[in-house]
Amino acid sequence: PPAADERREIRHTIASGETLTSIFRRHGLSAATLQRVLDSDRRAAKRLAHLRPGQTLHLILSPEGLQRLELRQGDSLLARVQVPAAPRQAAAPIREIVHRVRQGQTLAAIFHRYGLTDATLMKVLKADRKAARQLRRLRPGDTLRLRADRLGRLHGLTLERRRGAPVSVSLMAAPAPQKRAETPPEPAPKPVKVAEASETPAEAPATRTAGAEGAGQPRITHQVKKGENLARIFAQHHIPDATLVRLLKENRSAKRDLERLRPGQTLQFVLDDQGRLQRLELERRGGKPLVATLQQETAPAEPAESSEAVAKTLPGPEPKAAEKAAVPVEPAVAEAAPETPAVASDTADDGAETTKEATVDPSQPQRITHKVKKGETLAGIFKQYGLSPAVAYAVLHSGKAGRRLSNIRPGQELALELAGDRLQSLRLVRNPIERIEVVREGERYRSRIVKKPLQRRLAEVSGVIHSSLFADGHKAGLSDGQIMQLAEIFGWDIDFALELRPGDQFRVVYEEQLVDGRKYRNGPILAAEFVNRGHTHQAFRFEHDGEVGYYDAKGRSKRRAFIRTPIRFARISSRFQPRRWHPVLGKWKSHKGVDYAAPRGTPIKATGDGRVIFRGWKRGYGRVVIIQHSRRYRTVYAHMSKFRGKVRKGSRVHQGEVIGYVGSSGWATGPHLHYEFRVNNVQRNPLTVKLPRSLPLPRRQLAQFRRQIKPLETRLASIRARSMVAR
Fold first, then answer.
1. What is the pTM of this model?
2. Rg of the chain over all Cα atoms, to the nearest angstrom
């Protein structure tokens, strides 16, 4: 007589947005089963790739797993797939991973690093309660030995502490299902009730892989430390942000206490068998524990007939008495086979045979373009396409370029190439000239930044002042940044607030930067000419010794060589004078500088470009900085409270750069700055000395400067001639 066969049927009405992968996952069917369905009938796989709302999916299940699948539209049959039995897999070779625990690492983070799932972590914690307490308290320097096969299944682990006995946990693989012994049929078959769609087959007692010892719910205990908040604790234990949002939304009365955690409090995370948060308990010192529960997510709303379980009996022999207690379905394959990514359900005519073929074969690469939305992260996007947090971790730590993927912005597009559950490549376009590429190489990822070459061309603008520089500059075609740059270049020669007159003219030659033949942005101003009240001022951009400046046609800088005061809005407490009563020494002595009284810590700025030749302590000066400007000029800044960190002997400073802070070191009775201006190492009065207009270019640079500005002078002259003809 044939063996007893107990079968059941699930009818699922397809809702909007559902795919075959999500339906299989909802009813507890593994990715390996989905793969067998797609491989067994290619023609039917095309239909299954284009599911439509309102269609009905019939799943015929037996103790060995899924036997048959039917796709119907009303009374018409669209596709039928007879699912072959799962082949028995040969034992995979076991490898040992040795990991040394570092500061701040948890067991969950270590599992994710080596591609082990949260379900495997739950198995380990439930397999040995005593060992679980030790595994939750990892310490820096401990050694963790993981024994796993190449399919990602964990067979056991050992924790070796620096002090104390090692802790071992063994995970026994579930035995393969054996054939039932042939028994004579029973006199009359009895009906077997079909499980409802809301009851996932994985919840049946016969399909649990964790064993009977999982009677107690798994818990994670966390003691709050100083500076921690709930969001950081959830991220540390790899609990999604969406779960935290739902928890606070559903427990508004507990929200205030959960957002104000204090050091020493204890949090208990109560999880279900699949590692999802069910309840959060906050144990407070000397108070009643606070409990926040989380309702399980329900399936999306469907029509009245959608996804309802059909209680019916399919014809078949009477099952054995020992099998009547539970209705087993296909055993869940933990970590054995990756889940197939969801296939985009493009619309197609029901009866058309010329439907475009979707890429449902995991061996073929699948290309996906995802537009980043507000609030999304790389890990969240990966989760949408079936990629584990371990993949996101590997991509973000693939190099300097990979770390930039943690700062994705709304509107950017991610191009993903998937092969099964493996990410083969990723591309993110950050701006028109730069993109980040991540490519899989073996078991690792390599990232790099690819930049497009910029093409450059010269552009020119000319205009006449009628009302203001901003208004007329905009009419001529200058941007706000270019107008500000033009005002800064000629700011030492022209007071644009008081000296600008109608009829003044300006001519600008600047650089345009292009990408793929299209304008990307404006470059710097290369040459400019401004005619103010009949006087012509010219400026040319020149770079030398790593510095960029603007010079006139004779090589003199358009910026003044020195500013008068090194401190803004300071009061002069003592002027330059040959004879002054010294308040510390108590005698008459010359004062060869100017004292600026200011609060302690006021920034002190260099009055000109130069190189620091001394930074340190000098008797009465206290903390002092001496700067050499060209060959003739030096400036001295004394009585500082402290120096700026980057200012050292030999370093180069620029005009207006902070070099230190006001203090009262040395011979001083209160906080102030003693400032000296020396010409040929002789002190001069800083308030009356004739300052050089600008420092000229060095002679060795002058010849190169003249060669560089010659074509720009010619271009300005041609603009001037055209404007004269136009007038």
1. 0.40
2. 39
What does the pLDDT look like over 554-565, one tens digit per residue? Answer: 888 887 778 778
CATH number of the structural domain 571-684: 2.70.70.10
For β-strands 56-62 and 65-73, DSSP reports them as antiparallel
CATH architecture of the domain formed by 94-170 = Roll (3.10)
- Per the CB < 8 A criterion, the answer to whether 307 and 299 are in contact is yes
The strand pair at 577-581 and 535-544 is best described as: unpaired
Q: How far apart are the first and last CA of the chain?
A: 111
Q: Which residue has the tokens 């009405």?
A: 13
For 435, left (φ over 0), alpha (ψ -120 to 50), or beta?
beta
- pLDDT of the residue at 626: 95
Q: Give the Cα separation of 597 and 600 in Å (integer).
A: 9
210 burial type by CB count under 10 A (0-12 exposed, 13-18 middle, 19+ buried): middle
The residue behind tokens 């910029």 is 454
**Fold (topology level) of 8-87:** Nuclear Transport Factor 2; Chain: A, (3.10.450)
Min mean pLDDT across 176-180, 385-389, 419-423, 643-647 is at 176-180
Sequence-distant (≥ 6) Cβ neighbours of residue 697 within 8 angstroms: 542, 544, 551, 555, 556, 557, 705
Contacts of 61 (CB under 8 A, 6+ apart): 7, 8, 9, 10, 67, 201, 329, 330
CA distance 154 to 95: 10
- For the segment(s) 215-293, the CATH number from 3.10.450.350, 2.40.10.340, 3.40.50.300, 3.30.70.270 is 3.10.450.350
In tens, the pLDDT along 445-476 reads 999 999 988 888 999 999 999 988 888 999 98
Q: CA angle, 31 as apex, 419 and 154 as ends, to 5°?
A: 90
Burial class of residue 594, CB neighbours in 10 A (0-12, 13-18, 19+): buried
In the prediction, which pLDDT does 202 show?
Answer: 34
Structure tokens, 489: 């270049």
Can you tell me the distance from the alpha carbon of 448 to that of 425, in angstroms, rounded to the nearest whole number?
Answer: 12
How much is the pLDDT for 295? 76
Give the neighbor-by-neighbor strand order of the sheet with 518-532.
Answer: 455-464, 505-515, 518-532, 535-544, 547-551
What is the rounded CA–CA span in Å between residue 616 and residue 227? 39
